[in-house]
Amino acid sequence: xxxxxxxxxxxxxxxxxxxxxxxxxxxxxxxxxxxxxxxxxxxxxxxxxxxxxxxxxxxxxxxxxxxxxxxxxxxxxxxxxxxxxx
Length: 86
Hints:
This protein is mainly β and 86 residues long. It has a domain at 2-60. The protein is built from no helices and four strands. It has strands spanning 2-3, 17-24, 33-41, 48-57. A four-stranded antiparallel sheet has the order 1-2-3-4, with no helix packed on it.
């Protein structure tokens, strides 16, 4: 998820971050706002950098597609054949 100036003024410009959300806090907040917990990530590598808790406007959140692709599931793959004597 991209957290930038649209979600909160504190994340404007160079302070924008990519957040892999792990939980949404259910504590009461102002209408249209929420607390998110997750990990800031390196967008290039997908590596988690630091755990963060951020207070953001719901309307300003931008959900982005996964950046790493999972391998396709194996479909009805037959038994694995091994060489002789194995």
